[in-house]
Amino acid sequence: MNARPSLTRPALLLVAAGVTTALGGSIAGAAATRTAARGPVAAHVAAASPELTEGPLEDRAESAVVLLVLDGVRWQDVFEGADPVLARRHDLDPRAWRSPRDLMPNLHRLVDASGVIVGAPGQGATMAASGPQFISLPGYLEIFAGKPDPACDRNDCARPPARTVLDDVAAVSGPDDVAVVASWPNIAQAVSADVTRFAVTAGRHFVARSALLRSDDATSRWLDLGRAAGPWPGRGDYRPDAFTAQVALHYLESSRPRFLFVGLGDADEHAHHDDYASYLEAVHQADAFVGALAELLGRMGARGRHTTVLITADHGRAFDFKDHGPQYPESGRVFLVAIGQDVRHPHAAGAARRHTLSDVAPTVRALLGVGGGTGEAIPEIAASPR
Ligand SMILES: [Zn+2]
Q1: Measured in angstroms, how far is the CA atom of residue 325 from the centroid of ligand 1?
Q2: Does this model's pTM top 0.90?
Q3: 306 CA distance to ligand 1 middle (Å)
Q4: Do residues 53 and 95 make contact, with C-beta atoms less than 8 angstroms apart?
Q5: Which residue, of 76, 205, 235, 288, is most buried by count of CB atoms within 10 Å of its CB?
Q6: Superfamily of domain 64-368
Q7: Distance in Å, CA 45 to ligand 1 centroid
């Protein structure tokens, strides 16, 4: 297959949809607003501005989470920028994407405003997939179930967990408040024992609750465009990230689910093609999605202000960059970034203790005030109920 056209397509599609990636500091502004509401002048300000009258009860009702998983994206690139040795080996200018803030400007800007990083080098404890497989489906199973499934050792093991964080959110908010939008079709196998309860679009053709997803014209149009596209840089029923990103943004805007999972996978696909340049471009495009997401949340009022964005990866990569899996223990290391004004300890210098992907589900539940499941939230991000 010819890789060249795919390199420019995602950027063109983001522009075509009218989604800006040049962002203001909406989350930072929102954080300042909320701080003001809690300060000593809150009573006076609140009387003048309905925006500032939110109490703790309303906060909980409005809280929401977008969980973004960047399949196989290396923590090294996210926090240290592109590796000059890898770049040289792949005939890339070793200065390209050298700064992590050039590679992922939105992620770093939003963390600066109100966020926490878990698993960055030199900043607190590390984070890892529990493994031992360090491949995708076991990683997603651990994220959704809040515990690893050691019996799943393949990407098609078709073992949906008995209960996932989606079921926990649905038990409190109803199934319409949960949605999954993913490039990789196999993710549908991990989200729930009964995937048909939720709005799910995974790959180009798997859809559950189609009527819900298609109730918005723009979402529906992007679902159709994704179907018509080829799978590159994936294969089979894979849907390129550019389409997944647009479906996710339009569905979030029109239906406002309290829990939205977004799975982007182009970076992992390019890595398996041993194409570091295209991998880096996919990471940069994933960051453009983060920017578009923040811009959208900035237009969503109290719901947007109380939405926490969690960004993690299902696994890391081997030292050779191309691969990951049980024979490469280093590919178990991942990262997690939490962004938003409801982050418990923004600007904390990393995590106090080591975390695994099993801690993502309890963190989501704590952010949403939802019970169920086991485990503890990552304390720098949210407090588990006592
Ligand atoms: Zn992979």
Answers
A1: 8
A2: no
A3: 33
A4: no
A5: 288
A6: Alkaline Phosphatase, subunit A (3.40.720.10)
A7: 51
State the distance from the centre of ligand 1 to the C-alpha of 366, rounded, in angstroms. 30
- Domain positions in the chain are 64-368
3-state DSSP of 314-375? CCCCCCCCCCCCCCCHHHHEECEEEECCCCCCCCCCCECCCEEHHHHHHHHHHHHCCCCCCC
C-alpha 174 – ligand 1 centre gap (Å): 33
Distance 264 CA to ligand 1 centre (A): 12
219 Cα to the center of ligand 1, angstroms? 27
How many A from CA of 225 to the centre of ligand 1?
25
Between the CA of 269 and the centroid of ligand 1 the distance, in Å, is 6
- H-helix or E-strand containing 196? none
CA of 70 to the centre of ligand 1 (A): 11
Cα 209 to ligand 1 centre (Å)? 28
Going residue by residue through the chain, which has 386 residues, state the pLDDT in tens, using 9 for 90 and above: 333 333 333 333 443 333 333 333 333 333 333 333 323 222 222 333 333 333 444 445 689 999 999 999 999 999 999 999 999 999 998 888 999 999 999 999 999 999 999 999 999 999 999 999 999 999 999 999 999 998 888 998 877 888 999 999 999 999 999 999 999 999 999 999 999 999 999 999 999 999 999 999 999 999 999 999 999 999 999 999 999 999 999 999 999 999 999 999 999 999 999 999 999 999 999 999 999 999 999 999 999 999 999 999 999 999 999 999 999 999 999 999 999 999 999 988 899 999 999 999 999 999 999 998 889 999 999 998 77
Whole-number Å distance, alpha carbon 341 to ligand 1 midpoint, is 33
Angle at Cα 308 formed by Cα 9 and Cα 190, nearest 5°?
70
